[in-house]
Design goal:
Elements lengths: L1 E3 L5 H13 L4 E5 L6 H4 L2 H4 L1 E5 L2 H10 L3 E5 L6 E2 L9 E5 L8 H4 L4 E4 L11 H15 L4
Parallel strand pairs: 1-2, 1-6, 2-3, 4-6, 4-7, 5-7
Helix pairs in contact: 1-6
């Protein structure tokens, strides 16, 4: 499962929906006023349920109570490299806003914080690219879903 705060770019969200479909995800939780471009998302719109919420924190707390592990994709002082991270089977991956990353409220709910190493400038990947890398790694670890 994947969760996103309000994103600035509908192109990024559309790419994330397409990636979610490619990786076999069935549910995407988004906030804000999502507008998804069907030309970018393609067939993924038919298989990924998009659930729109006002705020992620209450949803993440509920999912945590349902025994999901909440994994944030963010650069922090205690984040673990994606190279070394073993995803729990029941994971909700939370990606951050393009400019602000994950809010303090969301960071406080996370069970794990994972980052993707950057080897040049700028200091972070595009949110859609980072999401694709993290979801691909999850799929690599759990190829049967």
């Amino acid at each position: 499962m994947l969760a996103c705060p309000p994103l600035r770019s509908n192109v990024n969200l559309s790419r994330i929906v397409r990636t979610a479909g490619c990786c076999g995800l069935r549910r995407l939780i988004v906030c804000g006023n999502p507008r998804i471009d069907p030309k970018i998302a393609r067939d993924s719109l038919e298989q990924v349920e998009i659930e729109v919420r006002r705020s992620l924190v209450p949803v993440l707390k509920r999912l945590k109570a349902e025994r999901f592990q909440i994994v944030g994709l963010e650069q922090t002082s205690n984040s673990v490299s994606l190279y070394n991270f073993e995803f729990p089977k029941r994971t909700v991956l939370v990606v951050g806003n393009e400019r602000e990353g994950l809010s303090e409220g969301i960071l406080n709910v996370l069970d794990y914080v994972v980052e993707i190493p950057v080897f040049g400038q700028p200091n972070s990947y595009n949110v859609a690219s980072a999401t694709a890398m993290a979801l691909y790694e999850y799929c690599r670890q759990y190829p049967a879903g």
